[in-house]
Amino acid sequence: MTFEHTFKTALTGLRAHKSRSILTILGIVIGITAIILIMALGQGAQDLILGQIQGLGSKTVAILPGRQPKGPADIASLFLDSLKEKDLESLQEKNNAPNIQDVMPIVFGPVRLAYQSETHQATLLGGGSFTDNDIIGKIFDVYPERGRFFNSEEVKGKASVAIIGDKVRRELFGSSDPLNEKLKINGKNFKVVGVLSSKGQVSFFNFDDMLLVPYTTAQEYILGRKYFDRILVVASSEETIARVVEDIKITLRANHDITDPEKDDFFVETQTDIAQRLSTIITALTLLLISIAAISLLVGGIGIMNIMLVSVTERTREIGLRKALGATESDIMRQFLLEAVILTAIGGVVGIILGAVFSFLVSLILSRIIALGWAFAFPVSAAILGFGVSAFVGLVFGLYPARQASLKSPIEALRYE
Amino acid sequence: MPLIEVKNLQKIYVNDGVETPALQEVSFSIESGEFVVILGPSGSGKSTLLHLLGFLDTPTAGAYRFNGKTINDYSKKEIAQVRNKKMGFIFQAFNLLAKTTVLENVKLPLLYSDMPEAKWNELALQAIQAVGLSHRVNHESSQLSGGEKQRVAIARALVNDPQVIFADEPTGNLDSKSGQIVMDIIRRLSEEQGRTVVLITHEIYTAENARRIIAMRDGRIENDQKVDRSRLDSRFQK
User: Fold this and answer.
1) A204 pLDDT more than 80
2) B19 in a domain, yes or no?
3) Residue A393: closest CA among A286, A293, A289
């Protein structure tokens, strides 16, 4: 029998039991929907995080104090005060690291801001440079909408100047103009010299809810510490990143009298490192969730097998008749196998459509309500995989019932009432 | 060479270790063009014999030659092909596909043949015309009366132009009027088209349509004789 007629025959068989067929494929639909949803959301999360990391610029390298964590139980909080002024000076020295373009130390911490009767909790970010007025803009790609950045003289002089994010402006100043107003941090007055435009998340910093001050001021008057939380380094080009990382390690080890790299009290993270680590975590999570969803496919497959066995028993007479009229074992086998595959493939297609719709809705909710820059991502690979897997489930779980059908003796079958 | 030739055919069913002989030492042959009725009460082995003749089952012992070739020499695939092309089956319970039109039911054997699809409709319509159901072509089988269903089944048996038609109690589920119409069609197939027909029944008046009656009892042939033509002719005159 030609494939076309086997297909038609299988379809006719399924159409004879519409509601049963629909209920049977529900398990497959749910399984495929779940897998598509998880894969689409995983892809969306990955795109979002990678996008944010790229917001920091791929040439940027971060030096962190402490030891690089080797595992979840590793205490990374050792030597948190290891990055000092001396390290900054050494890195700015062209002889030590010729491929470094910009260097900026940062310090951060939570602060309570006050303006007249209003108070607001925000994140303090201390940055700036002794030589470069625009270093914050260069590294984070954020610029004041009104006013200006603090200049290098103000950084040197530990000036009490601040630049505020859009949300801080709204919370403290409402509709009034914040420029040149004085706000209080720990009882000390700071003059607002700039207001950032609404920017959202850049890397791990939310600049909307942030207060920027010179790092010298932050160290001396607000946080009361001598060390840095990070030193951000911009390489001259992407090709020199590896060279810059090596230079940093050599310079800092010399500064810290470290001979054994195992005993480093700092570590260097490139954007690619971070991206890779996060991708690995997301991929692992996605795979875990998919394997849970796959269980519903297994259950769905068993449901298909069960219904196909019922169907084979019910249609014993039909099978006997077909055999008496000249159907071979493989004709019967193909007919019932195809019925199972059509069932699961339909379930797969419905699941792919539902999965796409749900993941679109979720991404809509995430981007509208939580205001994340979450883009709807529908991986075509997931759709192909979903369809393939569902058809495969039909093939596997349809095999046994189809074999049972093909082995029926025609007289047994014709005698069956 | 006879179309059908059986020698010492034996069939024993084994159920839970208990052997039940259904056919014992059956021998006969059927020439092309004969209309043979196998007559017997239930349990006489006539259905078993028909299953063996129709390649639906295999004998325990003895020889069955179809077209001069022993059944044991046919492969599974060839058996399916013989059933498809050389034999037509008519069953007591009609065995039409439900929710399927008359035309599709009649075309069913063609699906399993190597006949080009372009000819399917023509062949099916010819067969339907032969049983006088041209006006019912697109009706679903469930809308037909019992007699009409059996006529569809006859058309289905004819569609591949088989060498022999096996009919298993074709009037068993019909009232006497419908049964008579069905038997008239089967007799005409034999008389007008010269087709070979092997029909089993337990009713003597149905058996009398045939030219030859093989009477069976307890798995053996009791009697094998030609029917008196004068009796046939007298029926015609009624």
Assistant:
1) no
2) no
3) A293
Are A9 and B97 within 8 A, CB to CB? no
Mean of the per-residue pLDDT values of chain A = 86
Supply the range of the domain harboring residue B155: 32-53+80-237
pLDDT of residue A413: 66
For residue A78, the model assigns a pLDDT of 61
Q: One-letter amino acid identity for A63?
A: I
Interchain proximity B111–A321, CB inside 8 Å: no
* CB-based contacts of A336, cutoff 8 Å, min separation 6: A10, A308, A311, A312, A398, A401, A402, A405, A406
Q: With beta carbons under 8 A apart, name residues in chain A contacting B154.
A: none
Q: What integer pLDDT is reported at residue B238 of this predicted model? A: 43
| pLDDT for res A183 | 92
Chain A closest CA to B196's CA: distance in Å? 17
Chain B contacts of A318, Cβ < 8 Å? 97
Band the pLDDT of B155: cuts 50, 70, 90: very high
B2 is a domain residue: no
Mean pLDDT of A348-376: 83
Interface test with A, best of B94, B97, B156 (most A CBs within 10 A): B97
Residues of B in Cβ contact (< 8 Å) with A17: none
Judging contacts by C-beta atoms under 8 Å, the chain A residues touching residue B113 are 326
* Domain contains B16: no
Given an 8 Å threshold on Cβ–Cβ distance, is A326 in contact with B89? no
Residue found by looking up tokens 């809705």 in the block: A361
What global pTM score does this model have? 0.70
Q: Is B209 a domain residue?
A: yes
**Nearest CA of chain A to the CA of B234: how many Å?**
37
Ramachandran category for residue A393: left, alpha or beta (phi over 0 → left; psi -120 to 50 → alpha): alpha
* Alpha-carbon gap, residue B216 to B197, rounded angstroms: 17
Nearest CB to B113 within list A317, A318, A326: A326
pLDDT at B1: 84
Structure tokens at B232: 């046939």
Q: How far is CA A198 from CA A142, A208, A388, in A?
A: 9, 6, 45
**Neighbour tally for A353: CB within 10 Å:** 15
If you count them, how many residues does chain A have?
A: 417
Reported confidence tier of residue A370, pLDDT bands at 50, 70, 90 = low
> B236 pLDDT exceeds 60?
no
For chain B, what is the domain count?
A: 1
Contact A127, A106 (CB under 8 A): yes
Distance from CA of B191 to the nearest CA of A (A): 24
Percent of chain A with pLDDT over 90: 31
Contact by Cβ (8 Å): B112, B189: no
Are A326 and B113 in contact, with CB atoms under 8 Å apart? yes
Q: Which of B81, B93, B99 sits opposite A326 (nearest CB)?
A: B81
CB contact under 8 A, A317 and B95: yes
CATH code of the domain covering residue B179: 3.40.50.300
Mutation site, A5, A325, A406, interface B, largest B CB count within 10 A: A325
Please report the pLDDT score of residue A279 as a whole number. Answer: 81
The dihedrals phi and psi of B45, each to the nearest 5 degrees, come to 95, 5
